[in-house]
Amino acid sequence: MGYLALGIRCLIGAVFLASAVSKVGGRGASGRFVSSVRDLRLVPPRAARPVAWCVVAAECAVCLLLAAPGPGAVAVAGFAVAGVLLAGFAAAIALSVRRGVRTPCRCFGASTRPLGLRHVVRNLALTAAAGAGAAAVLVAGAARPDAPGGVVVAVVGGLLLGGLVVTLDDILDLFRPVGPAPGLARGR
């Protein structure tokens, strides 16, 4: 169970690190994220900026809690905060989509892809992973993974899954039908 807990720590940590960095890194990133929070129409417009910064702070807290060495209670707290955030994100996205809001997903930086059902499913799957991670930490107790090969596999596997989650929209876009090239007229 220690290896599973380690792998899920890397998965959730990588996802939240990429999310937080993409929302504040780069020119105009924070402004775009604040606009997307405002466009969701779930909070009053003047509360969008504080809510956006609270989200980024909570995402950073998840990363720190999951990366911190020490008792399993710290990791369980990280998984708990991650689970609450992910479930909240899923609910917010579902509510906004139901209202017909088509704001772009700013989960991992600048994207033109509007929020949709796949983002809800992604966040619910990550919520389940956070729950599994907390359970694995609790079951493993004080036992730590000690085989170097197992540790490498758990860390690399978690980071790869995290990278897959972060780039999921881009990967799915590769399989979308391509329309006609702009400027080409039919029949010529």
Automatic annotation (TrEMBL):
<dbReference type="InterPro" id="IPR009908">
    <property type="entry name" value="Methylamine_util_MauE"/>
</dbReference>
<feature type="transmembrane region" description="Helical">
    <location>
        <begin position="47"/>
        <end position="68"/>
    </location>
</feature>
<dbReference type="GO" id="GO:0016020">
    <property type="term" value="C:membrane"/>
</dbReference>
<keyword id="KW-1133">Transmembrane helix</keyword>
<feature type="transmembrane region" description="Helical">
    <location>
        <begin position="149"/>
        <end position="168"/>
    </location>
</feature>
<dbReference type="Pfam" id="PF07291">
    <property type="entry name" value="MauE"/>
</dbReference>
<feature type="domain" description="Methylamine utilisation protein MauE">
    <location>
        <begin position="1"/>
        <end position="135"/>
    </location>
</feature>
<keyword id="KW-0472">Membrane</keyword>
<feature type="transmembrane region" description="Helical">
    <location>
        <begin position="6"/>
        <end position="26"/>
    </location>
</feature>
<feature type="transmembrane region" description="Helical">
    <location>
        <begin position="74"/>
        <end position="97"/>
    </location>
</feature>
<keyword id="KW-0812">Transmembrane</keyword>
<feature type="transmembrane region" description="Helical">
    <location>
        <begin position="123"/>
        <end position="143"/>
    </location>
</feature>
<protein>
    <recommendedName>
        <fullName>Methylamine utilisation protein MauE domain-containing protein</fullName>
    </recommendedName>
</protein>
<dbReference type="GO" id="GO:0030416">
    <property type="term" value="P:methylamine metabolic process"/>
</dbReference>
